[in-house]
């Protein structure tokens, strides 16, 4: 009876966001509370999965129907979904949100939750399309011509790669008679390449993810927090699941991850716009998430919480131009989240990012671990550019913004409490050298920043623009062709 009850609970939880969105359309005053309810339910499911209180798998509609796997891999991503969406709701509690924002947020939340537990190709296709359409409509929230083009570009690219994904899923079914992810291993190189193009683009990795910086930077702050905090994870989870059943991906995915980490880091180091710097950092950090499936969930959780907090406070920045950033005082409600979020991404104890990075370091072989350290030095150099602004307690935020965002406070509290929980769970003397290493990496990153700072004043210190629509399509084509050749 207990497993049956667990199955009913899972089905009810998956349907809850869509039911709540429908009720929000009928009763708009309840929209905020319904959105909070959805986030609380997803957080409770994540905790229940970790406690082993829910069935590890769920099959609906027979052997060719929906396959769900609410397992340990899904749990940190579900917690991330709950916290980031909940923080966005709290951040906008006192503001009038544009259009049906909360309704779309609940649909997006439900699509992400389903994508994190789905293990059949058709269910993944449907949920990723729900996430894509929800994100598209949320980007349109500012109703400007630029946001319209960026949203359409996001939708066009997403629909194109998901069409390729669907073709790959059809090939898997024709050759293996199943839509399950574990059937992909025997379907051949062409099917795998088609599936990977779709998932890599959704995850914002390497050349397939070149759509990410401009889209995330130009979207409204709360939408940027969703996109960089949790939406990109919708493509990450299937990639991590595939890497455990397709032996080829054990070498392919880390190489793509390192290439993505290096590309995003390189552009972030020379970027002159604060929000675009954060977006390029997302492309880089997503590359690190896929390096080791065993450590990817915790790393994605740490990054997503911190990056969502950074984007939420970005609307309170005195300006996006990093030139003269050190001369612009920041209010405590901006300065402190900026430091805590960025230090967590760099991997400074006792924040969650430190334990996530330490876990990733332990899961990697020695040569890749050394590369991770070098990339972390680069990340510290990137975020050191945001640490020059002084604290100015009298700097009042622009009305009607409160001094502190409750959503940002939730994310910062999560970084601290989850970090403390990881310290309790994984404490060992080995963490002391890891903490010393983190201090050295931080100091080296600040040194690299100081060396590069004079060069940034030169007009030639720029990289080519790779974000035009032809570049995006070409990048996806190059990745697809490269995958097809590589995994033959």
From TrEMBL:
Presence of the UniProt keyword Cell membrane in the record: yes
Matching Pfam families: Proton_antipo_M (PF00361)
Record-annotated NADH:quinone oxidoreductase/Mrp antiporter transmembrane domain positions: 118-359
Main location: membrane
Coiled coil: none
TM regions (residue ranges): 6-27, 34-53, 73-93, 100-118, 124-142, 154-175, 187-211, 223-240, 252-270, 277-301, 334-356, 368-387, 407-424, 431-452, 472-487
Keyword Cell cycle: no
Function in brief: NDH-1 shuttles electrons from NAD(P)H, via FMN and iron-sulfur (Fe-S) centers, to quinones in the respiratory chain. The immediate electron acceptor for the enzyme in this species is believed to be plastoquinone. Couples the redox reaction to proton translocation (for every two electrons transferred, four hydrogen ions are translocated across the cytoplasmic membrane), and thus conserves the redox energy in a proton gradient.
Protein family according to the UniProt entry: Belongs to the CPA3 antiporters (TC 2.A.63) subunit D family.
Protein name: Proton-conducting transporter membrane subunit
Source species: Cyanobium gracile UHCC 0139
């Amino acid at each position: 009876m207990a497993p049956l009850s667990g199955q009913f609970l899972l089905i009810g939880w998956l349907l809850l966001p869509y039911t709540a969105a429908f009720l929000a359309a009928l009763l708009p005053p309840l929209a905020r509370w319904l959105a909070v309810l959805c986030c609380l339910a997803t957080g409770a499911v994540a905790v229940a999965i970790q406690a082993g209180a829910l069935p590890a798998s769920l099959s609906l509609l027979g052997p060719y129907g929906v396959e769900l796997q609410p397992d340990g891999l899904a749990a940190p991503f579900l917690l991330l979904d709950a916290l980031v969406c909940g923080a966005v709701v709290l951040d906008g509690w006192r503001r009038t949100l544009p259009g049906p924002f909360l309704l779309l947020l609940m649909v997006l939340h439900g699509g992400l939750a389903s994508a994190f537990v789905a293990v059949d190709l058709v269910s993944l296709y449907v949920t990723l399309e729900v996430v894509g359409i929800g994100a598209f409509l949320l980007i349109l929230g500012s109703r400007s011509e630029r946001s319209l083009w960026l949203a359409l570009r996001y939708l066009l690219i997403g629909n194109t790669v998901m069409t390729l994904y669907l073709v790959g899923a059809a090939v898997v079914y024709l050759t293996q008679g199943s839509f399950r992810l574990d059937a992909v291993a025997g379907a051949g190189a062409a099917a795998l390449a088609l599936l990977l193009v779709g998932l890599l683009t959704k995850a914002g990795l390497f050349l397939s993810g070149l759509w990410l910086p401009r889209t995330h930077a130009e979207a409204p702050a709360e939408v940027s927090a969703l996109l960089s905090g949790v939406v990109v994870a919708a493509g990450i989870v299937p990639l991590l699941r595939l890497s455990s059943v397709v032996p080829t991906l054990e070498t392919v995915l880390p190489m793509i991850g390192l290439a993505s980490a290096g590309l995003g880091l390189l552009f972030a180091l020379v970027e002159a716009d604060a929000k675009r710097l954060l977006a390029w950092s997302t492309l880089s950090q997503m590359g690190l998430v896929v390096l080791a499936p065993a450590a990817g969930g915790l790393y994605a959780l740490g990054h997503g919480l911190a990056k969502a907090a950074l984007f939420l406070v970005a609307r309170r920045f005195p300006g996006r131009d990093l030139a003269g950033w050190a001369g612009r005082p920041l209010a405590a409600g901006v300065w402190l989240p900026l430091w805590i979020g960025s230090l967590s991404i760099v991997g400074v104890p006792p924040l969650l990012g430190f334990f996530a990075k330490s876990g990733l370091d332990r899961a990697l072989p020695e040569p890749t671990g050394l590369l991770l350290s070098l990339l972390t030095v680069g990340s510290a150099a990137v975020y050191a550019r945001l640490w020059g602004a002084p604290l100015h307690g009298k700097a009042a935020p622009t009305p009607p913004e409160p001094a502190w965002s409750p959503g940002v406070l939730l994310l910062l509290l999560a970084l601290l409490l989850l970090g403390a929980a990881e310290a309790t769970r994984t404490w060992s003397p080995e963490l002391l050298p890891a903490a010393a290493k983190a201090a050295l990496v931080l100091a080296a990153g600040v040194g690299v920043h100081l060396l590069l700072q004079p060069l940034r004043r030169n007009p030639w210190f720029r990289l080519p623009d790779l974000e035009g629509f032809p570049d995006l399509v070409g990048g996806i084509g190059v990745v697809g062709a490269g995958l097809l050749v590589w995994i033959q």
